[in-house]
Amino acid sequence: xxxxxxxxxxxxxxxxxxxxxxxxxxxxxxxxxxxxxxxxxxxxxxxxxxxxxxxxxxxxxxxxxxxxxxxxxxxxxxxxxxxxxxxxxxxxxxxxxxxxxxxxxxxxxxxxxxxxxxxxxxxxxxxxxxxxxxxxxxxxxxxxxxxxxxxxxxxxxxxxxxxxxxxxxxxxxxxxxxxxxxxxxxxxxxxxxxxxxxxxxxxxxxxxxxxxxxxxxxxxxxxxxxxxxxxxxxxxxxxxxxxxxxxxxxxxxxxxxxxxxxxxxxxxxxxxxxxxxxxxxxxxxxxxxxxxxxxxxxxxxxxxxxxxxxxxxxxxxxxxxxxxxxxxxxxxxxxxxxxxxxxxxxxxxxxxxxxxxxxxxxxxxxxxxxxxxxxxxxxxxxxxxxxxxxxxxxxxxxxxxxxxxxxxxxxxxxxxxxxxxxxxxxxxxxxxxxxxxxxxxxxxxxxxxxxxxxxxxxxxxxxxxxxxxxxxxxxxxxxxxxxxxxxxxxxxxxxxxxxxxxxxxxxxxxxxxxxxxxxxxxxxxxxxxx
Amino acid sequence: xxxxxxxxxxxxxxxxxxxxxxxxxxxxxxxxxxxxxxxxxxxxxxxxxxxxxxxxxxxxxxxxxxxxxxxxxxxxxxxxxxxxxxxxxxxxxxxxxxxxxxxxxxxxxxxxxxxxxxxxxxxxxxxxxxxxxxxxxxxxxxxxxxxxxxxxxxxxxxxxxxxxxxxxxxxxxxxxxxxxxxxxxxxxxxxxxxxxxxxxxxxxxxxxxxxxxxxxxxxxxxxxxxxxxxxxxxxxxxxxxxxxxxxxxxxxxxxxxxxxxxxxxxxxxxxxxxxxxxxxxxxxxxxxxxxxxxxxxxxxxxxxxxxxxxxxxxxxxxxxxxxxxxxxxxxxxxxxxxxxxxxxxxxxxxxxxxxxxxxxxxxxxxxxxxxxxxxxxxxxxxxxxxxxxxxxxxxxxxxxxxxxxxxxxxxxxxxxxxxxxxxxxxxxxxxxxxxxxxxxxxxxxxxxxxxxxxxxxxxxxxxxxxxxxxxxxxxxxxxxxxxxxxxxxxxxxxxxx
Lengths: 530, 497
Prior knowledge:
The complex is a heterodimer of chains A (530) and B (497). Helices cover 74% and strands 3% of the residues of chain A. In chain A, 58% of the residues are buried. Chain A starts with a helix and ends with a helix. By secondary structure, chain A is mostly helical. By secondary structure, chain B is mainly alpha-helical. In chain B, strand 2 and strand 3 form a beta hairpin.
């Protein structure tokens, strides 16, 4: 019975969506004036129920499934099995998405209220849940690859959703990049299978390469690893495969927030972690030129992402650049190829999910309530939308890495991993060992840039400038009364949008203040993985 | 939660009162209530700090993650800074009662004013470097609204500049913190430093780089070159009481940071004679000279005082960088003297703006006829800063020069005192013209304008005058009777050097 449950989180949403789409075909004519509200209500309950049920199943699995339980769904050919298995690392990813998805669905219902084609939106939104859960539950590289491709197909219509010219361009670029990347990743899959010591592609902590054979073709394999890294790196937005993400912000905010800040990009990072720690293995990669290349690529991405975010005036695109930079924090930590590195990278994966979805939802709330999308339009909104901006402040401080917020914890761990790697590296690999120290410097530069690009928004919100034209001579008493009273009217959105925001902010503060349960669990994973 | 909870009180009480002042809806139009809350916070902070510093106490609060512990611990340096902070804060708070009547959003100002006080006490009581860093970041963020307060274009851009310089400095320092955590694990403050040479074998280069990063990074708050640029922009745009405490107290937290890092974590022996010490001495002396020079050329009163801060705080840093007991005592005594003097000066400048609207020094001719008592206080404070005996600045500069001469740092032993002297001359050059033109405007001065504006003999209210009086009196009295203070500081110096 337990084993059967393993396939539910991936397949339940898919089945649900099938039902929805079929009913949509037959019901499309009925979606006219009179029946519309009723249909919407049904849709809401249907999607909400499925999402919640799926999350509950995931939590049932996370809390009570034993180690090593697996379920082979079917065999493609020989050892190429589609197999589900939930190990500790999968639990981390599954835990994150199972918390975020129901809240994001709740948020979407308010956000999408005025939109047409809700059926399409929620069908694909739900379908993506299943596919992402499939990635978390994958028991081998083959299954992971399968769901990785499915993820592209399931999310492509969501980028296309606004049906504008921009959306068309963005979705096409997304498609080309993702499918191209997957092709490179496929090469990795083939080579892992060929050099595997177990004869299949199962995930084992420490990797499954047959080191004797692998070392005879060391450079080829390292090159293949790099190809696969950048292949999966398309979804994890590694420079130079990042260009689809800023464009993709044309999608509705629930999509940008959940998919382009969490599910899709973190699937890429998750796949890279699996590839590095569970397929190739750190023993093979540690100290190789591939490791330094990967580390350098993440550093470049961090620099690029955070610098571009400062230059960008469109709020959601700015956040997208921030995602680019933060995703590479995860990869940077992973590239330390150590147990500390794996733990730190998972830590940032979890923490960043909450911080970034919170910031995006704030941006979405502002867009939804006021229609403002550029940062220079936000003057004085902090007083009008106190709860939204309160949450945004928390998310911003956390992204910067101010202590007492969750972001500090993950940065602390990443820097710790980098220093440990550097200390060891100095002794073992000579001057290459200096690279991790450079990584810490990059991290701190990026933190500074984060302060610039996040806090300018917050400060604009809370402290709107009184311009000389509007206020006249400031030293004259009463001059400031000419400026419109910014306290008028509360523009905070409804509870369905606020509740997720408040929960995310609470989680950020909670983890920031008391993180041992999380970090200890992650250290266990790290200890096994490398 | 082990240890003495009394340490928590002076941190929590002002923050709580500040939060009430910020969040309370009833304060608009009800000034007495607001002031009641504010003075409960200030007086409570003052009393509980005095109570807390009398005992020996240690407090471990909780852990953010493994190896990141929040904890308090009292020692000589902490007591010294905490008492200085609350006293000055209280006086400047008293001054604000009148001053803030001509600003808006009083409750926001007072709210953050109180919160920063709590955070600063937390900074002084911090028992390890991580806790210190936590409060250091909080201090930057919570003092930002004080700088931004007027929300004019200049104020907002100055606020952003302040924020970015501070954050950049803090992150530079964080590099060092990461490094020492990785090597040492535990970063509890121990007089004389916790680091042992053995644990750094093979990593001396990284060690020195890390220390240098921390010197420059924490030096940002103290206005040390090259991260000094925010100070002359940010201090003058804030309301006068805020500029006073920003210049007088908050810059000292950068000093405290360097004391903590160099004398309580790294240990002076690790960097004695290295390039880091040389660079530190050089940067501080450069800042001393440059600050005085810029102040001398600056026509706007509050900006001139801000440049003066740049220069004077680097006196302190110079004293620390020599790693020598006498200079250390000189540096710490200059912390007190400069704090008192600079607060008095900024509050005077604020009083002038409040009563007359004058901002530039050249407008202030004949000020002695408008507010003789205030200008008298200004003169006393200025003389003290210049270093005329017996006023207090003389004592600290004497110790600094003596320390430099006996430090054995090569050419710095004589370059240092020469620069200090030059800068003292410049200090006289930029502070005293106001006194001279104020009291003796010259024969051609036409007093009719003052009469027309009804400015003659218009001293500010007692709430503004009293703090100025007390602060400048303090500056003079400490100069006449420096014994107890110097004894206390020498005791501290003995433990760390």
